[in-house]
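Step 1: inspect the first sequence and its tokens.
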Amino acid sequence: MKTFFISAFIVCMFQIGNAQKAPDTPETPTNIVANHGNYSEGGNTSVSISHTDDAYKLKASFPQSREARLKELIQNTLGDKNLNIRKGYSKWSNNEKVYEVKLTQTTLRIWIDLNIASTNLIEKFEALGHDAKTIISGSNINVEKARMQREADRMRREANRMQQEVKRLEQQAARETKRVEREMKQQNERVQRDAKRLEIEAKRLDMEAKRVEKRARHKGGISSYIKRLLDDAKTIYTGTSGSDLNWIWPSVQEDLLAAFLEDEFVTSTSKVAFTAEKDHMYVDGVELTEAQSKKYSAILRKAGIKTNADFSFYKKGDHIVIIGLNAKIKKTFNDLYKQGFIASTDEAVKLLINGNSIVQNGTNLSSDKVAAINTILSDNGIIPAPGKYLEMKKAGSYRLGYSTGTKGIVGTWIEED
């Protein structure tokens, strides 16, 4: 049995039929040099970035007015552990000679050895260089954050368009083959090659979109799909206590929002973006320290949320969206069947799991059944929320999340072959 897991933000749910996995595209050495310069605020600014196979380097000069913001950015990224302050400059470096950052009143030098540094450290320095360039050029980081999110959305739309084009080309090939198989053989092979090339490019763009979207999310960005859900009436959260219904989320949300205010990550709880990814957590674009992460991990564990799996919580006014990727969906339906809540494990069933209520195949369940099913959901890592649904279309075909149209879902989609 082969199982496919398509998780997180999936909009168009279709498969590219019977296409074998294309060979990985070989990596090519990179040697990228970018320069930028202008004159503003009474002084010259220039930025030179070199990104080769061996090292990432940034050299910049700027008006003295940029120094404070740059120093704050570097300290927020690297901390003060490896900071050496001397007359006229500040320098961050470690004993292993992996990286060095030197900041004066009007210059900045960043260097990292790509052969030694870890992947996480390289990503951190690339993000540091990007944000430093934004500050030096005088741009607003919030504006840049929004631009990045728009770029991620554009890339995703282009990937979807290419996937549709793949399907169209394959259908065209089938029709042409039936009409004149011998005459159109060469053309059919060419169309198939084009389709395969487009499929590979679509996958590459989709992966790139996810990478850019991830960086934007770390900076507090919110995807267009989540924004639409936060404006949808079905995601309104009343704040009613769920203790009598074994719904644990109300108390967890209360603890999270109180902690956000206490730790001064937010000044108001009317709009919040919180995400946890493996060993990293972010609140409105601010990365938590190790000590802070332990605090919030404890809060999440109260809801049965595993901190080693991706989890996101968004709030806008009275609307909330909760996405978790550690759910045991197939086991949930087995448990529902064993306790008599569904007739079998291979017949279609859909439950609207709002927390305070559950609608099963269009029928509102009693509070006793809601409490019992909420317990089963919690035991299997599923967090009920307004507008959320759990569905078994047939044995081996499952959905968990929020609908975004007739065929779209934000959440988890599982198909077993």
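Step 2: inspect the second sequence and its tokens, then contrast the two.
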Amino acid sequence: MKMLNIKYLTIFLFLISIIPNAHSETTVATMDTYWSLTGEITNEYPYSVFITIPEEIEYIEKDLKSSKNFMELTNGESDDDDEEESTDPVTFDITPKSELNGQEGFWIPPYTTANIKMYSTRVDVLTTNEDDDEEDDDEVVRTMEISGPAAYPKTKLIDLSEIIPASKKDKIELDNFKLYVKGSIVKNDTDVLSILIPAPIVLKDYSTCDKFISKYSVNTWVDSYSDWVTDHNELSSYGSTMLDNTLVPVFDLGPGFYKTFDVPALVYTTSSNQELSFSYKMYWYAEEEDTKDIWML
């Protein structure tokens, strides 16, 4: 009897091992990213100041708009809040380095500007983030639904005032910061990849952005992630029977009426297994104070 129970247990465990997991995720693409950040820190105090060097960079995880017309992707990080924080190890490049009270950093003499550089790398594995409602437990698809492009509606912000909190002091000034980002995207467990990805790392309140395209590459950049999502949703709703634009009233609410967060994005479709390379540079400058000429009469 005991031997019989062992036999049935063995068969049961075998059957469990071959039953497919109805909630398994599919890896759609892998994104490798390298970034470097350079800039200037000016000490306007009449004495030297010591700036500590961070061991890791802390980003703000920013959610972007999406819709049911897209298959949303995730990189496995928590989605509990709209804005979360994540970290990566960071290398700080400055000479000479010093140590004060057990902390590594560097000195800036009075009325002097120091040039700094930090850099890091990260890998994001982009996977499907939802169960397919059109599949039964046996994972057999029995409908002919439209499958929209995959979208990764997240980006990571680098906030200079948070990674360099010394700049919150009145006489510590930041200026001329440049964020250079380069990376690649490779499709994984799919025959054809159709994807929308915002610029993965951005400077908070950046001034301008230059998108680089190599001589033999196709331009896959769009200037606005949000505009592309909006246009795609409109086309999905109206198709080829959209209303004549000349019949739609135009409401001029003035520049800056709606000030929403937005970034450039990569949009492309490919069946190739070759990686897509991308690179861009963002610039951040200190805001100039408004001044008025005063005439002495």
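Step 3: confirm your contrast with the notes below.
Residues 21-130+144-234+260-282 form one domain. The chain has a mean pLDDT of 79.
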